Amino acid sequence: MTLVVSAFADGPRRYSDLSHRIAVIQKALRSPERDGLLRWSVTPAVDVSASA
Length: 52
Fold this sequence. Notes:
The chain has two helices and no strands. By secondary structure, it is an all-alpha fold. Helices cover 52% and strands 0% of the residues.
């Protein structure tokens, strides 16, 4: 969790910078996943929409 918070705590970023930071976080999480300490799951969600 600290990786995610620190990666985005600096304020607004360009897409390419965010993409790079996300890739670094994913790479850091691959080792615990291989060791069985972390498991990824996808949860379906409904898109948020604005109504007037």
